[in-house]
Amino acid sequence: MGQSIECPNEAWKQHKILTIAVDIGGSLAKLVFFARGAGKLVFQTIETEKISEFMLMMHEIINTQENGSQSNVRIVATGGGAYKFHDLLCQEFPDVVEIARLDEMECLIKGLDYFIHEVPEEVFTYNDLDGEHAVVPEHAKVYPYMLVNIGSGVSIVKVDAPAQYTRVGGSSLGGGTLWGLLSLITGAQTYDEMLSWAQGGDNTQVDMLVGDIYGVDYGKIGLKSTHIASSFGKVFQRGTVKDSTTPDTMSSAETSTKGIQSRKRKFNNADISKSLLYAISNNIGQIALLQAKLHNVPNIYFGGSYIRGHLMTMNTLSYAINFWSSSQKQAFFLKHEGHLGAMGAFLTFQS
Amino acid sequence: MGQSIECPNEAWKQHKILTIAVDIGGSLAKLVFFARGAGKLVFQTIETEKISEFMLMMHEIINTQENGSQSNVRIVATGGGAYKFHDLLCQEFPDVVEIARLDEMECLIKGLDYFIHEVPEEVFTYNDLDGEHAVVPEHAKVYPYMLVNIGSGVSIVKVDAPAQYTRVGGSSLGGGTLWGLLSLITGAQTYDEMLSWAQGGDNTQVDMLVGDIYGVDYGKIGLKSTHIASSFGKVFQRGTVKDSTTPDTMSSAETSTKGIQSRKRKFNNADISKSLLYAISNNIGQIALLQAKLHNVPNIYFGGSYIRGHLMTMNTLSYAINFWSSSQKQAFFLKHEGHLGAMGAFLTFQS
Predict the structure, then answer these.
(1) Domains, chain A, ranges and CATH?
(2) Is A130 exposed, middle or buried (0-12, 13-18, 19+ CB in 10 A)?
(3) Which of A254, A279, A294 is facing B290, going by the closest CB pair?
């Protein structure tokens, strides 16, 4: 994910102006530029919290590509941070040709359009059964499509034609929610730590399944006993074993490197991580699917930095789209999922 | 909520058989019976975990109403526990006339129909601006409606006519999820503790708002700066102040009666509770609304034991329905929200 792209467009090698495109979101700041010497599109990311370091990254690019001179440099910014950090950008780069601010949705769509049509091996499908398959969307059948951009939060955009789009909805239960909950409950320090824990977890220790409520399938409405009825639904249960050494006044949750003890019952970090990864991912998938049904759109592209190439996450999203649409709709993923906005911002000034 | 109902049906006073209707769900076991002497429908609830005490409650009713004799008693059970605890019911009540198992969805709809049509003061609307208003649905305009039943998980049922319904979807992010997350994170012991904390909380300490990302409104797509972009989105941020007394090896989350310390930043229980109450409630509201749009249904009834008369929760659900439908659809609440299934089970044997 996020690998540099070789020789994408010969014309770009001739441009005099170095364009540095940035997409500064709630959690992550993304950057794209074209390294003319190497003939590569380069993609970088850092936490928005480390905004000073992000400025340094941009200075470094100017040092390497332009010998430190800002006079042939253009900065194109999108995302919320294009507004929030506009003054900072002006302070840090007073001698650039321009600092442009572009609309986030417009850049997302422009970037996605580029990746779909111009970059082979960019779009792919994935589920555990079929594995990964590169997709070259047939030009006649690309539109309309839906982009579900999962960052700190979720934006859902319907695209009818190039540059013709509507933000039809979104959700506040996004990447920021998952990382926030997991970092607080498990003490995990990085996204990848949480994702690797989820890999080895058993969510049935934490989730309440249909089988837990019924004892059997609820076949009449098509729900198998393994279907999750209530995410995290087993956690509030007090259990029947009272630990007499635990005084009633002691706070019922204490952390450890292994897990959290609650109400005399221990839940481990791996199980918690898997449960919440499923909960957030399934929910995004369901909302995406309901919107796709509402707007009659067959193809759903998942963008944003949430997925990070994690197979379990992609399988969950694919399954949600498949299950809720009775296989009528398709989920697509992107190698440069987190850089759609930055790519669109970059392209705006490449004629 | 859950108050007994006086003299609902004169004919019931003549019945020889005492019907005890139970709806045993993932978290709560609900019960309804008609006390002939007092002429009242009585409603009771206890945690499903306390199943032995639930059996004792049922024995107590038989003691009081039938002098302990089971021979004129019928038990009607619905919910998952009707299957899971069938053997236990047979063991505890070997001499009753019958122990019937009825489908959960069918009972929910039957009970809701009864409450809508036969019990004045049952259905109401609520939002902070307009307050509470009793509603008597016009008979000609009742159907079709949607029932969003929020228990441990969520079921969404479309009702086209009496006894004509389809479960169109649901969500695993329900009451069980909220109580599980809050009990684990805050150490709260009861639903009402969590709800009262939420009342006094400030979710903006925990949630990432549009304004936090943009600095201003994102007016172009109709999102105000106060709109929640990412629930719990502020929690994963590391912050800039490093607490030098905190060794790196120490687990970053510890609980206290006040809150949880994470990454050198403290989040208090009230703010966490409000954030998650909003997150879960808004999400249910959004999914309900998308389903209502998809199925062209104007009226949405919220059932199940999740709401518990909590004004903030009802306002959140009403706002979600209102906002996402541009005021085209309406949210309704019920005084006996948790007893729809038990009521429907009871009614099945009252001819």
Answers:
(1) 2-108+340-348 (3.30.420.510), 123-206+267-334 (3.30.420.40)
(2) exposed
(3) A294
